[in-house]
Amino acid sequence: MVDVREMHTADIEAVSRIRVRGWQAADAGIVPRTYSDAMTVERDANQRRQWWSEPGRQSRDLVALGDWDPGGWICFGPRRRELPGAEPVGEIFALHVSPDLVGQASAAGSLEEAHERMKSQSFQASTLWVLADNQRTRRFDERADHQADGTPQDDAYDEITLTELHYQRVL
After folding, report:
1. How far apart, in whole angstroms, are the C-alpha atoms of residue 152 and residue 63?
2. Are 106 and 66 in contact, with CB atoms under 8 Å apart?
3. Core vs surface per residue 63-84: b (16+ CB within 10 A) or e
4. pLDDT tens column, 63-118
5. Which of 57, 132, 143, 157 would bridge 163 by S-S if both were Cys, CB 3.0 to 4.6 A apart?
6. Quick check: 102 and 95 in contact, CB under 8 A?
7. What is the span of the domain harbouring residue 43?
8. Residue 47: inside a domain, yes or no?
9. Structural domain includes residue 27
């Protein structure tokens, strides 16, 4: 069992460390090294502080607690590309776990808690995007009952275009 709680401003440094280290470990060999090497905890924490203080922010952040510090982080909220007249759908914007905790329950516990909170907000489904070449993350998402629906999108990382795949899970 993993303890998952709302993120606090005091968690920003730990979350930035998790996010940067998570990107660098999980997407090594997929995302251009120039992109991941340019990520710093300090820059990410500064951006996160600005983002955290934005009025009207609809996303929610949870942290999975490790022995003494957050060991995982998940961010979710209403789907960014809501379709007119469609049922309300939530989106997982980011899920990162400290590389030394990969394979433990932090990611799965965070995702399940996010799903429960989405349900309580009357979301009917959960969606997310994952890099097509990140097989480990795709397997994790599939074990969590997310299914690829065949919708791709391309994103540029240091002028290298990578394809992401859309996954969805009925809540």
Report:
1. 29
2. yes
3. bbbbeeebbbbbbbbebeeeee
4. 988 666 788 899 999 998 766 567 889 999 999 888 776 766 677 888 899 999 99
5. 132
6. no
7. 4-126
8. yes
9. yes
